[in-house]
Amino acid sequence: MKKIVVVWSAVLLVGAPAKGQFAEDVLRFSQFGLGVGASSLAMGNASVGLAPDYSALFWNPAGLAQQKSYEFSVGASYLNFGNTTRFLGTRTEGSQSGLNLNSLGLVYPVPTVRGGLTFAIGFNRVANYTAKTEFTGYNSSSSIIPSLIPDVDLSTLSPAERDDLLDNNIPYQLYLADISGNRLVTSISGNVQQSAVIRESGGMNHWSFGGAVDVARDLALGVTLSIVSGSYTYDREFMEEDILNNYQKAPSDTLGLFDQFRYVSTINTDLSGFNAVFGLHYRKQGKYRIGFTVRTPTYYTIEETFSDEGHSRFDPNLNGTVDQFDIAFDGKTDYKIATPVVVTLGGAVQFRDWLVIAGDVEYTDWRNMKFVTSRSDLQSENRLIQNIYRPTFNLRGGAEVTLWDLGVKLRGGLQLRPSPYEGDPSDFDQQFYSAGAAFRIDENVWLDAGYAFGSWKTFRDNYYSPGGPASRTNEHVKTHNAVVTLTFRF
């Protein structure tokens, strides 16, 4: 079962609204994108056993011990996110693109009598949150407005609590709800045209330092320490309109009939944290390589600022006036989370001098991510995490072909990322198909290019009624990722 909640929750008994944190927030910051390096992307990210270049700092730091030359590399990445949304029989296309620095790093091998001792330092963009979703459709059965009205008996509140609730309730302040029988009620319950545009942006960065040392012949150990920083921005504009003039009760001379409700929610998130990767790498030159890594939990401190804006418009009243009302709230919050441990086993086999085949298996138990807090509401989300998530095995594979002495390498790969949600069907699993090439520009200069096409299905619950989800979109996501890396060895 999958649940994507995109609803702001109002705190009933305080003077300002607050954004609720959900299990999905922890999942977002627990997942990586398609990693670091064009060569890795082209081979389906099957890099834990190979770890052939600077990107080993992210994939398997023990692989750095293979490096006998100084290396400087810089890479750029491009992501195009496309989403086909089906909502109440209507299909809508949405897309968003982003161009970022993918990596910038230096590998420094230390001269030794035997074996290898190598250090690396650099910047890596490990996740990109660029996304866009659009939908529109006529909803005859529900409206978002009732979901914004708390189900509370006003007579049970103190005068101050009652005033706080009314002052901070958007439908009430916009004349879309009224008091009846000591409760807030609204006459708007469906038969509205609904549309929304949801934009997401930002990313996660690792500022990393690591090293590797040969502890025995053909066996190396390594570690990477990373300071994590990043940002995430969410912006949703949700619109409801009475396009068929269903609300046809007699107008008053002070306020006309309901015509439109616009609801804008924004979140700006700054995140910081730290993690480590411990790696082992065994290499039998000219034959095979085996890698094993343990990625520790990332411990994040997350700070959010948010705003909630509402706008209502009514048809002309008896005086011919179009009434419009606006209201806005903002606030901030902070919390801490911990991501799961990630364990990966990878291998690569060398066939002659021209063919390499590699594969990785990555295990993550998503039930181990959590909010680090004593707050009862977030402890409840931790219990939910235990119920709705599951362990997964990500599978990655790739091949590289060297074209004689032409200074050209061709690569291809694929990877499967099962959905972390318990009970999701197989078409909710993320699948990526990749290809790429490397070109020797000069004796010590290589240009690598990698491309990956991704596809999967999902859904989004836009708001809830007492009986459960009241508005859902079914989505088919397609992504195009490209990375170009320029490497100098000297």
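[next item in queue]
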Amino acid sequence: MQITLLVSNDIQYDQRMIRIATSLQKEGYHIILVGRQKKTKTIPSYSFKTHLLSCHFSNGVLFYLEFNLRLFIYLCSKKREVIYAVDFDTLPATFLYHLIYSKPFVFDSHELFTEVPELQKHKFKKWIWEMVGKTAIPSASFSMTVSESLAHYLSVKYGVNFATIRNVPLKKSIGSVDIEQRRKNKWIYYQGMLHQGRGIDFLIKSMIALPTWTLILAGDGDTSEELQALSKELGLEKQVIFKGMIQPEDLIDMVKNAWIGINLLENNSLSYYYSLANKTFDYLQARLPAIHIDFPEYRLLASENESINLLEKMETADFVAMIKNIWENESQYKNMVKAAEQAAEKYIWEKEEKKLIAEFGTYFPLLRDNLQK
């Protein structure tokens, strides 16, 4: 059975979809992951097939129109059996293909797309995406998302059940943690996209009060240029290091040498409020203590895991005090590392993929079984 996975981003940096595609391929499905051709001319070789679509436009309304048109033409030319739509920006092409060819599709929501900060000031655009969701999602064979909070919200909003498949990494063996080297590095580490509302400007400004520390930003995004300009304006070029996009397999070497991980979000979006970022679990796999914003999913994890500290609100004084308190209490830090090590055994893809396979086995059992025979 052939399943075509659709994403609007650069495939090689989408760790969740690489894991999902690999697991489904291993299970016996024939997988092709379709993404967007960006700066990279070639992508790594995977166990599944890949295909990249080139677009003239890179963002905004014209990009979404062009990309979905190209997706639809691609799907029609290949007559795909099952479509796996990732987030709202692949839903128009998916749903139109479903209507014309009566092919089943799966919907995977990585966020509350209609509640992202970028749409809050554009009511008409938000309304359009709301209509896309309300029209298309109820027709999916099944839907899934990345956290219990999101699953509950989306299930109520769209009147269908959303399964929870957490965005957790594969188990990694990193050996012993060199805490002394971490203390020498004094890296405050952020991994992820540099987008509006991610608290990156707050982190950069906070570095003024932490002159002996280094802020490492591993990622890229819409606000990269203005953040670099802010860093320069504040005279922090040597203290704030922009690493850009890093290959997923190379991230672990960087994160394991950091002293603390950071995941702060502004409370200006329901998408952020109910989020459960994959960096949360990447930090755990690196046995890295972390500071997260005090939102529901992180609060739940913190109640189970002492490696996570919660920042109630993004106030520089509170953040700096938390950094210094952890720094001065070495025994607390060692306990946090130990707690992260324990959590690293629990939150792994090897366990989560079983839920994914069960969902596909439930909705596509005969096709899958016939293929394996």
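[queue empty]
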